[in-house]
Write a structure and sequence with these properties.
5-stranded parallel beta sheet, FAD/NAD(P)-binding domain, FAD/NAD-bd_sf, globular, alpha/beta
Amino acid sequence: MIDVLIIGSGFGGLGAAIRLKAAGIDDIVILERFGKVGGTWRDNTYPGAACDIPSNLYSYSFAPNPNWSRAYSGSQEILGYVHHLVERYALAPLIRFNHTVVDARFDEPAAQWVVTTAEGAVFHARHVIMASGGLANPSFPAINGLDSFTGHKIHSARWDHDYDFTGKRVAVVGTGASAVQLIPELVKVADKVTVFQRTPGWVLPRMDYRAPGWNKRLFKLLPPVQNALRRALYWGHESMAFSFIWNTPMTRLVERLSTAFLHQQVKDKWLRRQLTPDFTIGCKRVLMTSTYYPALQQPNCKLITWPIATVAPQGIRTAEGIEHQVDCIVFATGFEVSKAGTPFKITGIGGRVLAEEWARGAQAYKSVNISGYPNLSMILGPNSGPGHNSALVYMESQIGYIVNTIATARREGWRSVDVKPEVQAAYNVSIQRRLAKTNWNSGCKSWYLTDAGFNATMYPGFATQYARQMADFKAAHYRVESLS
């Protein structure tokens, strides 16, 4: 039997393995469904792919990288950092590639998890950490005629690097975080780019720059200087909670800054009108880009705001009856975020199935533990999504809590640890009460919410608040079963 089984080899899974090893827990296996590590940064290789959080903050505090080439690094450099983690902390021997988990069942008499893969392998583990991530499975929109298109179809998270866009007519469906990065790159090579927008987003400039050589040398020579920059970036992003999470005077200020940026970059009044959001900033993900608006105004780019009626064999037909004929459709339509289900079947105590319990919206205790599913932990689980700060800050807090729980169980001789149902229920009542006062729940439709309007995604507070709650493990909140 394995001590700890980790599902996923992205930032979350690798970070958990690193911290477990540091705590003296080294009987670890990491299951990865693909042949390489990296999670979302392995999968998202579309032109222009980059992080909208500064690199010195989008990295682990316990593994700083003094060699970031830019303020906001691209996907390949971030993936390189992930590979550096594997090498530096000797994680390669722990990883089992090409293992797609399809079932996880808690064996009550043995107090262990039985995890089965599509390849037929079965693993028995005392503890399981789900680190598969929320941005793992690409989502195609429910559009009529999607399969009738005879041209080329690409999803931004499964980019086809063999397809030559030179001289092609390209449609881009979606104007979210991935779209605003790839559209400027497509405009450079395609004959024509037609962008289909459902809802305009709030846009802020991304203050990117190339890191000078002296900067890297300084960080190597004096790591506290890089740490000081990280702290400054952290507190700068923390302050944005007053703009993005709650409706405050700072919200109005940032909206005015975004509007001024739109007016600066887009001179055409009609196009500005089409690009002006009608919801409170923060309700949907804020877009960080300085190249999107200029790309839309290039002679070979056109913005379409009519709703899509159907996909036709030769292109896309919009509601007013016009068919836009294209050679390729790029879907920048995001991911199937697990707000009301699970990535595979998870069976807990008494045969309870987690997907059924989460049918109306996912819930957990402190985002990591679920009552009725002992010894199971999640990274970036329900209500841990950041709206203003680095996801890795939240991950570090969760990993610390999970490692603390597992280390305590080993030290105290507990064979199973299960959060009490009343504790989980009280926590989620509090979370939903706080969410009701946030911009995310202010009325706009976003991927943060289920179709019924339940927010199982975001954390309604500061990253500092989240870290504080995760630093406090209370054994009294759990039902424990001893080995003896």
